[in-house]
Amino acid sequence: MYSTLLTHLEKGIFTITINRPEKLNALNREVMNDLDKAFDEVYDNNEIRSVIITGAGPKSFVAGADITEFSGLNKQQGIELAKKGQDVFLKIENSPKPVVAAVNGFALGGGCELAMACHFRIASEQAKFGQPEVNLGLIPGYGGTQRLTMLVGKGKAMEMILSSLTINAAEALQSGLVNYVVPAEELLSKTISILELINTKAPVAVSQSIASVNAFFTGDGYPAEINNFGKCFETDDVKEGIKAFVEKRKPNFTGK
Ligand code: COA
Fold first, then answer.
1. How far is residue 111's CA from residue 88's CA, in Å, rounded to a whole number?
2. Is the dihedral of CA 82, 220, 195, 46 positive or negative?
3. Alpha helices in 45-175 (DSSP H)
4. Is residue 133 annotated as a catalytic residue, yes or no?
5. pLDDT tens over the chain, length 256 residues
6. Which CATH superfamily hosts domain 5-198?
7. Residue whose CA lies nearest to ligand 1 atom number 40
8. pTM of the predicted model as reported, rounded to 2 decimal places
9. If you measure from the C-alpha of residue 162 to the centroid of ligand 1, how many angstroms do you get, rounded to a whole number?
10. How far apart are CA 220 and CA 43, in angstroms?
């Protein structure tokens, strides 16, 4: 179905593996189009409850946008490329279902930006993060200047972007870029165990939580939270959640 992605749906968890290991999973146009389509599937398929994005092979999550596609671009083409990248990554960030990056190696340039567009990140001990675009005479264009600043703060983001500083998994954990660092062989099992827990929660409440946290970054977080809190009362699940609490039993959420 996708020429550059492997996908697998099991127990509601949709795993998307970017599959160009010979090019360290660099994001060419085809990968970006496939990711765009894969997220249509995420939005539309009711069997998908949550998503993992990872990279094929032992070495790389994604080593950046495909540099070979940059040669000869003019200003307008550069703007269009960045716009397309930002649109796809915003679709991931605004996914109503949780999306976690399982970062199994290099997450550089567009790879770091892709990981940051996910709702949170788990890294293997081999992971490395950086925005090395200035080495190419470029800047991050798929949201990196914004999301890195939000995640690690202005000073660290400036240092990483201006100097092309690459940080290892332990430094990424310390900077708040990732939530956990685990041995490579435990990366997927750790990610799955967190998503299995999230998948037991009320789906509409999970979606509205994502939308409300994301609204912090667009500046209308408080009114968005009020509205999204209200929307939860339209669900059967809120009735079930409250009833189950009173009856001292586990809730049985249906997503309605
Ligand atoms: N775009 C296109 N191709 C890439 C790529 C990218 N971002 N990153 C790696 N590749 C390709 C290499 O050209 C090489 O292809 P080849 O075998 O046909 O020559 C292949 O992937 C393997 O990469 P290689 O450089 O040989 O691996 P390495 O272990 O020596 O180095 C990196 C790994 C990540 C340090 C190095 O590949 C690199 O610096 N990549 C670019 C990172 C970057 O600047 N990303 C931001 C882009 S905006």
1. 13
2. negative
3. 75-93, 110-117, 144-152, 154-163, 169-175
4. yes
5. 899 999 999 999 999 999 999 999 999 999 999 999 999 999 999 999 999 999 999 999 999 999 999 999 999 999 999 999 999 999 999 999 999 999 999 999 999 999 999 999 999 999 999 999 999 999 999 999 999 999 999 999 999 999 999 999 999 999 999 999 999 999 999 999 999 999 999 999 999 999 999 999 988 999 999 999 999 999 999 999 999 999 999 999 999 9
6. 2-enoyl-CoA Hydratase; Chain A, domain 1 (3.90.226.10)
7. 63
8. 0.98
9. 20
10. 23
Q: Residue 114 corresponds to which amino acid?
A: L
How far away, in angstroms, is 190 Cα from ligand 1 center?
A: 28
Ligand 1 binding pocket (C-beta < 6 A) is: 23-24, 26, 63-68, 106, 108-110, 132-133
Q: Where are the domains of the chain?
A: 5-198, 203-246
Amino acid at 163: S
Distance CA 58, CA 106 (A): 10
Distance 78 CA to ligand 1 centre (A): 20
Mapped onto helix, strand or coil, the DSSP state of residue 88 is helix
How far apart, in Å, are the Cα atoms of 56 and each of 30, 71, 118? 16, 26, 17
